[in-house]
UniProtKB/TrEMBL annotation:
It comes from the Bacteria. Keywords: Hydrolase. The lineage of its organism: Bacteria, Pseudomonadati, Pseudomonadota, Alphaproteobacteria, Sphingomonadales. One of its GO terms (molecular function) is hydrolase activity. Pfam families: FGase. The keyword Hydrolase applies. InterPro entries: N-FG_amidohydro, UCP029730. This is N-formylglutamate amidohydrolase. The keyword GTP-binding does not apply. Signal peptide: none annotated.
Length: 242
């Protein structure tokens, strides 16, 4: 199953989870230890449960990826060097090292293109006032264990920071240490939002939750409450999202 998963909803928000799955389609051999499929290099840990819970709390439609980012990274442009990653956080992906251009093109046609077409179709049909991208990040990279990642939550954005500023303010008002374009910058890694929001002037929130806050049901419930309130706030204060 490589088609994205769609959750129906009526709220003026479209939730998107680019890295919600660790599934590897039949016929693809990554050549890695299967245990790595449960790690952050293969999936944004906790984002499936969080996106599902947010969709329920907001009555919002959602689109979730159903293929691991190690097969193809849906948050990268088709011509990006890291689209089919040959290594991630110190782990070589042998099956991608040996993948030829035909294999890359096949993954784009079978997985990447339909995923982004589904997002474009949902936006055209539903005309949401706000896109919300749900990601998670690891507390520490194996390749940079001394690099602190102290933020429990980060908001990413590129040129359009309308929703981001409102979201950062709402989260900070709760006393949270919010990463402003951290743990990495949306000016560098923002393809899905660049393509579907920035390009058309649609406001968006790029949300990153540190994955140790999503490792159990209580953590998911906590962040569902926090983000539901935050999204409602953004919808209220954005004139273009009214």
């Amino acid at each position: 199953m490589t088609a994205p998963r769609l959750i129906p909803g009526t709220a003026p928000v479209l939730l998107i989870a680019d890295h919600a799955s660790n599934a590897v389609p039949p016929g693809v051999d990554l050549g890695i230890d299967p245990a790595l499929l449960d790690s952050h290099i293969a999936v944004d840990i906790g984002t499936t449960a969080l996106t599902e819970a947010l969709a329920h709390a907001l009555a919002a439609p959602a689109i979730l990826a159903t293929v691991s980012r190690l097969v193809i990274d849906l948050n990268r442009p088709p011509d990006a060097a890291g689209l089919v990653p040959v290594a991630s956080d110190g782990h070589v992906i042998p099956g991608n090292v040996t993948a030829n251009d035909s294999e890359r093109d096949l993954r784009i046609a079978a997985i990447h293109a339909p995923y982004h077409a589904a997002i474009a179709d949902a936006i055209a049909r539903l005309r949401p006032s706000l896109l919300v991208s749900i990601h998670s990040f690891t507390p520490a990279l194996a390749t940079a264990p001394d690099l602190a990642r102290p933020w429990p939550v980060g908001i990413l954005y590129n040129r359009d920071d309308r929703a981001a500023r409102a979201g950062i303010a709402a989260l900070a008002a709760r006393g949270l240490h919010v990463g402003d374009n951290q743990p990495y910058s949306g000016r560098d890694l923002n393809y899905t939002m660049d393509r579907h929001a920035e390009a058309s002037g649609l406001p968006y929130l790029g949300i990153e939750i540190r994955n140790d806050g999503l490792d159990d049901a209580s953590g998911v419930a906590h962040w569902t409450t926090v983000l539901t309130d935050t999204i409602h706030h953004v919808l209220r204060v954005l004139p273009s999202a009214a």
